[in-house]
Amino acid sequence: MAAMRAVYLLRSAAPRGRCRGRTYVGFTVDPRRRLRQHNGGRRRGGARRTSGRGPWEMELFVHGFPSDVAALRFEWAWQHPNSSRSLLAPPTRRPREQPISFALRLLPRLLRAPPWSRLPLKIRWLRPPRPALELAPPPHVVEEEWAGLPRLKRRKRRSQEVEVENCGCGLCGEAQATPLLRCPRPQCTMAAHPPCLARLFLALEPLQLLPVGGACPRCHTHLLWGDLIRRCLGEAEPEEEWAEPDDIIPSSAPT
């Protein structure tokens, strides 16, 4: 079971001084634990750049990356927009613009840039009110509002949740050794070879190599390609014990 892969944005809530309003972008597999480490200083596992410059508050995190490499590249591009090759025309910092405002202006531009523009990513906003973004994220990016920091729990790996009677592909009808992609709805028995389903999803985008998503050919539920692949490989994100919407770790929480 793969852990959650999240790229997060922190803002310093220091009451005064040069540290107030500073931001920090990082990568973690456990946002709740990582925030505690940042507020605990370097002795508790926090980063050098955040030690002694808090307390820190987590504004949001982006998750759903298919690999550590994809998440770390997103983190680096967010930290170094002028050096990243993914942003062809990175925005410049406006006069007197707050660091948090600049970071939020960068976020949708990164989500719209390849290779992340076609990934099934999710943005979880943690602190209301949610700021309005200058650009909208891609329409397939899910925005989770004020769900709180996740309490992750381990779960037993499921080999195949549903065994369909027909072992062949529901689109081409042939039985091959290729693993089948299955609709996650318990009532749906759709199973298809990845190339067959990809061709169906890319019918309106013939110039693309990989689809973003499409409608299940059996139950017509909208499916994201990345979620189907992760589910097939047994790499779905860990389950959460959901917190209440206002259950956000205070920046001064003890560690």
From TrEMBL:
GO terms for biological process, alphabetical: double-strand break repair via homologous recombination
List the InterPro entries hit by this protein, alphabetically. GIY-YIG_endonuc, GIY-YIG_endonuc_sf, Slx1, SLX1_C, SLX1_endonuclease, Znf_RING/FYVE/PHD
Q: Which GO terms describe its molecular function?
A: 5'-flap endonuclease activity; crossover junction DNA endonuclease activity
- Its domain of life reads Eukaryota
**Residues annotated as domain GIY-YIG:** 3-90
- What is the protein named? SLX1 endonuclease
Keywords linked to the UniProt accession: DNA damage, DNA recombination, DNA repair, Endonuclease, Hydrolase, Nuclease, Nucleus
Q: Does the keyword Manganese apply?
A: no
What is the native source organism of this protein?
Answer: Motacilla alba
- Please give an example of a GO cellular component term from this record: Slx1-Slx4 complex
